Fold this protein.
Amino acid sequence: MTFFVSFATVPTPGGLNEDYVAVGPDWALVLDGATAPTGIESGCIHNVPWLVGNLASCLASRLCTESSDLADILASAIEETTSRHADTCDTRNPASPSSTVAMARYDGSTIEYLTLADSPIVVGAHNGRAHAIVDDRTAHLPSYKPEDVRAARNSPGGFWVASTVPDAAYQAVVGTLRTADVSRLAILSDGSARYVDRFGLSDWSGLLNVMEMSGPGELIERVRAAEMLETEDDRRTRKLRGKVHDDATAVLLLPVAKGAGTAQRVHG
Ligand SMILES: [Zn+2]
């Protein structure tokens, strides 16, 4: 069993990309960095792209060489990333830059996955159905005032993200799938997942169809088009939180039996 992998990552129009994507022969990961709200002191001199770039490099080096549990890999990567700015920044500040993590590692028989905070992993079955694996704690906070979100971050009863607390890794949603049961798999930042959960343009299966037939870039193009059409009224009546535009990343994994299929399957 081998896997065809394709991906796209696109920043918010006019902005820096605070998402990050990295792919190896048998793993893939998506990070979605979080900006500290205006007026909250982070104690860190770095920007969010620094955080996601460093965390991705620490994760990638481990995924290339280690076979430890994904949660152990993430804990150790958070620890190393934190050490990279411990001399210049107050890494004990709870508002230090942070990131979601969604990753998968696969071989011929199993797909291991881990998702922390709101970057979903979408699993397609051979019967055409699909479901999303999510860590939805950020969707159920009692308050979204900046100071309350700050207090809920990386604390029991709140939500967990990759920042400066290695133990956050053990709060992630983890599991293993049988490769034979999976027809396709997507790893998304919420900027791409909003195709389904904000704009309702399809269900998860429809999202996988777009990615498989036209590529991950087409999914993000369609999200951008929907963002342009959303009005202030929509946001008010549906009580939508979050940004009008968001960085968007999408990775598609297609398990392909040895000797079968071609790259055309990815690009339609
Ligand atoms: Zn820093």
The CA atoms of residues 102 and 115 lie 4 Å apart. Residues 44-46, 85, 88-89 surround zinc ion (CB under 6 Å). The longest strand covers residues 2-10.
